[in-house]
Amino acid sequence: MTMNRPILAANWKMNNGPTSAREFMKSFLDQYPRQNDRTVLFFPPAISLTTMAAAIADRRDIMLGVQNVYWKDQGAFTGELSVGMARDAGARVVLVGHSERRHVFGETDEETALKCAAVERGGLTPLLCVGELLDQREAGNAESVVVQQLRAGFSQMTQLATRDVLVAYEPVWAIGTGKTATPEDATAMHSVIRKELSALCGDRGRITPILYGGSVTSANAQTLLGAPQVDGLLVGGASLDAGSWLAVARA
Ligand code: 13P
């Protein structure tokens, strides 16, 4: 999988069903000709994936992912989505351990590990999200929380030395709050993540893309992207409006 950096990723969360996804893409693609110096990644709701795949058919600079999967391949698991189905519908990447999965739906480190392993088995790329709560930061535990989430999330993968993975640092206190980590905070935590990735993935850990997420806007995207160790952005709210997302994608 070739991804050029920076990686600009839009996490639409529970927004944009097939009809609005189609309209969004029409407007976005009209104004965003192919760019070879970056990769744009969309995480639409799974139900909009085939619509999105049709829209980007001839665009190698744009890729799709899903926001969540279950770790079993198939069977009686009402409401769940397998890695194989996501791949079939056009996904190349899977978000694992997003803060809302962890804190709204109670997803554990053990579950993120099973999901990352299933994504690897299914031949897709996991984008593992890690990040501390405000009280964990205030207690001085931010780094240990993030390192623990990383180690746990990748603990069941067997090909870390040879396969692509992506990581996003999304401090929970910055998600949807309008409070962004400073570029210095982002660089500091990304450096901690980089060191841990080198321990986990060997040489490959040095080039694993690390994205920042949390209240990224068209106004701060450029500055955050310019921070050392920030290889891309994972954007929620500002990715829902075609105009503001265009500005971020061009940052
Ligand atoms: P916001 O950009 O809305 O803060 O959301 C960030 C996020 O959770 C991306 O995955």
What topology does this entry show?
Blueprint: E1 7-11, H1 18-31, E2 39-43, H2 49-55, E3 62-66, H3 83-88, E4 93-96, H4 99-103, H5 109-121, E5 125-130, H6 134-138, H7 142-153, E6 166-169, H8 183-201, E7 210-213, H9 221-225, E8 232-235, H10 242-249
Parallel strand pairs: 1-2, 1-8, 2-3, 3-4, 4-5, 5-6, 6-7, 7-8
Helix content: 25-40%
Q: What is the N-to-C order of secondary-structure elements (H for helix, E for strand)?
A: EHEHEHEHHEHHEHEHEH
Question: What small molecules accompany the polymer chains?
Answer: 1,3-dihydroxyacetonephosphate
Total of domains = 1
**Which structural class do you get from the secondary structure elements?**
alpha/beta
Look at the structure and name the CATH superfamily: Aldolase class I
Weakly predicted, low-confidence segments:
none
DSSP strand content: 5-15%
Outline the biggest β-sheet: 8 strands, parallel, barrel
Instruction: Name the assembly state.
Output: single chain
N-C termini distance: 23 Å
- CATH topology name, in short, is TIM Barrel
Based on Cα principal axes, name the global outline.
Answer: globular
Mean residue pLDDT: 97
Would you state the CATH class? Alpha Beta
- Strands of the biggest beta sheet: in what spatial order? 1-2-3-4-5-6-7-8
Radius of gyration: 17 Å
CATH architecture heading? Alpha-Beta Barrel
- The beta-strand count equals 8
Number of helices, where a helix is a run of at least 4 consecutive DSSP H or I residues:
10
